[in-house]
């Protein structure tokens, strides 16, 4: 065998190709050697999730939308964004340059090339030896991580995939899987807190702050960083892009969520959940006609989806088209008639609209039904209290508004609503206390 000039021993043989391991949401034939730019144009299908879905209750919006990098040279491709110093999601899809290298100086470099290669081969061989000895173990780690993820054991899945990535730092599958796990860890934590504090946490999130929000934001940013890392080696699937978008929704960045949901739907327009969240994002941005169209697409794929129809109603209400809004809310309520688990939201929103239309007598039955479904939703008690107040049933209004305040004590408008109800009943001291509390929470001085 030919000897390296100036180096004793035979040239060692080793594989320089990095093979990307399989992943459940990739095609069966996606095992391939990685080369820079090999992800360009690759389509990846499938889902890690069950095909059934329900809107993620933790989702409620950062600023500049991402754009896919289509430049042709790596050095000009930079889509880095930061929250503080954390690198978030970016995609590099530059094309391989066909092996071309700069010509000047190449001939002068060639005599050194064989020496340099021979010096590097033993190092590369020894570096490759350790992973090859435990390749079965590391591949098992990824398989185990995937299985744990699918079983809902996110803590152990997180640990396993991180161990795998220590030996395969440029595995797109590993990074994408970790991105999914981190996102699902947020849901698990939220539901865990919901069980501890009551399901109201899933609804009464407007003023939520503290450790739970810090946990959510940190995990969402970390999830985005993993999708960024994986996107350097492989084009993300429609599902991957959807989770990227949902991470941005958790971070209350509606612009980026809109962008990546649109990209996800371009790859897979048959995903009703993605259409639903695109509708929610459009609604949050005040783009109500576009929101209605997105919800309509969701409903074409999943007829009688009461969540989507409720949001159609909200969009029509925002457009000041109350008759169409009422019809949508009534549709959502009717579609739940045969289901064992009912959603209180369409009842609450219809009651709210009827109160605003000065039809409190029609609102009361719907709001009462929503409370029968689930009793700890502040908005339901607030709207029922307002309806009773309009009907001059002040004792009942008082009870409902007090319950609303119990559920969300830091909402100033609830104290402002309760004060005149007390006053109507001659409870002046309580009325003044509520007025003062309203002013204090609003940052203003009471004028009582």
Can you give a write-up of this model?
- This protein has a domain of 220 residues.
- It is elongated.
- By secondary structure, it is an all-alpha fold.
- The chain has a two-stranded antiparallel sheet. Strands 3-4 form a two-stranded antiparallel sheet.
- α4 packs across α6, α14 runs antiparallel to α15 and α16 runs antiparallel to α17.
- Helix content is 60%, strand content 2%.
- A hairpin with a 2-residue loop joins β3 and β4.
List the helices and strands and how they pair.
Blueprint: E1 18-19, E2 33-34, E3 82-83, E4 86-87, H1 106-133, H2 135-150, H3 154-167, H4 172-197, H5 211-231, H6 238-250, H7 254-267, H8 272-284, H9 288-301, H10 306-318, H11 322-335, H12 345-356, H13 360-373, H14 378-390, H15 394-407, H16 412-424, H17 428-442
Antiparallel strand pairs: 1-2, 3-4
What would a concise description of this structure say?
This protein has 448 residues and is mainly alpha-helical.
């Amino acid at each position: 065998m030919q000897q390296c000039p100036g180096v004793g021993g035979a040239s060692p043989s080793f594989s320089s190709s990095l093979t990307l391991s399989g992943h459940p949401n990739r095609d069966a034939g996606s095992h391939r050697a990685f080369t820079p730019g090999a992800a360009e144009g690759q389509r990846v299908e499938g889902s890690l999730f069950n095909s059934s879905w329900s809107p993620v209750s933790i989702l409620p919006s950062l600023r500049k939308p991402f754009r896919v990098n289509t430049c042709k040279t790596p050095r000009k491709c930079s889509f880095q964004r930061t929250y503080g110093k954390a690198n978030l999601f970016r995609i590099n899809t530059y094309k391989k340059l066909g092996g071309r290298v700069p010509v000047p100086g190449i001939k002068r470099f060639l005599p050194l090339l064989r020496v340099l290669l021979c010096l590097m081969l033993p190092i590369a061989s020894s570096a490759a030896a350790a992973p090859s000895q435990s390749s079965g173990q590391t591949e098992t780690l990824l398989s185990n991580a995937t299985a744990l993820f699918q079983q809902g054991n996110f803590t152990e899945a997180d640990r396993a995939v991180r161990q795998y990535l220590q030996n395969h730092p440029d595995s797109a599958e590993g990074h994408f899987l970790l991105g999914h796990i981190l996102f699902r860890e947020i849901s698990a934590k939220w539901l865990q807190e919901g069980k501890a504090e009551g399901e109201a946490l899933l609804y009464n999130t407007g003023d939520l702050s503290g450790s739970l929000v810090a946990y959510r934001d940190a995990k969402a940013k970390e999830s985005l960083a993993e999708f960024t890392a994986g996107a350097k080696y492989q084009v993300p699937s429609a599902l991957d892009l959807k989770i990227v978008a949902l991470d941005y929704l958790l971070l209350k960045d509606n612009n980026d969520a809109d962008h990546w949901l649109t990209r996800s739907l371009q790859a897979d327009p048959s995903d009703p959940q993605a259409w639903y969240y695109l509708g929610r994002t459009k609604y949050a941005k005040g783009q109500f006609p576009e929101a209605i169209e997105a919800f309509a697409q969701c409903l074409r794929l999943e007829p009688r989806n009461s969540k989507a129809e409720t949001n159609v109603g909200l969009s029509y209400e925002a457009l000041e088209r109350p008759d169409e809004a009422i019809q949508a809310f009534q549709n959502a309520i009717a579609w739940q008639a045969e289901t064992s688990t009912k959603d209180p939201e369409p009842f609450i929103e219809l009651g709210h609209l009827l109160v605003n239309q000065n039809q409190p007598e029609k609102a009361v039955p719907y709001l009462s039904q929503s409370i029968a479904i689930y009793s700890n939703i502040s908005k339901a008690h607030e709207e029922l209290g307002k309806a009773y107040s309009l009907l001059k049933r002040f004792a009942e209004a008082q009870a409902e508004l007090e319950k609303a305040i119990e559920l969300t004590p830091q909402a100033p408008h609830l104290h402002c609503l309760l004060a005149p109800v007390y006053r109507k009943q001659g409870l002046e001291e309580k009325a003044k206390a509520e007025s003062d509390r309203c002013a204090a929470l609003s940052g203003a001085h009471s004028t009582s």
